[in-house]
Fold this sequence. Notes:
Blueprint: H1 3-28, H2 37-48, H3 51-77, E1 92-93, E2 98-99, H4 104-113
Antiparallel strand pairs: 1-2
Helix pairs in contact: 1-3, 1-4, 3-4
Amino acid sequence: MNPKDFVIGLKTTVVDENILIYKDLFSNTPIEDATDAYWKRALTLFNSLPIEQREVFFEIIRQTMVDTTSNILGIMDGVSTFDGADDEFSLTYGKNNDTLTGDLQSLFLAEEEKAPKRE
Length: 119
């Protein structure tokens, strides 16, 4: 697997597939079926939104997923840091422990930029 394949797979799984799961859960879960207090509050909020604002709600969730994934990849690339991380990170893949490097954050953001624009 090369770095581009990795970020495409990450984007597909973490962003594209998860936003569909969120849309399904929020759109099809009756509040009375929710057992978790968080989900009840989240569903109440979602259901209180006008129909035209619900898509904005999902855009916010998607952008949060993109920003979070980008930040993690920036840390892996060494572009961003956090307290206590004094050494470089490395990401390996496969039996040969091939290192996945090559501006993962930039590759991820370039793939996200190709996504159809939401108006």
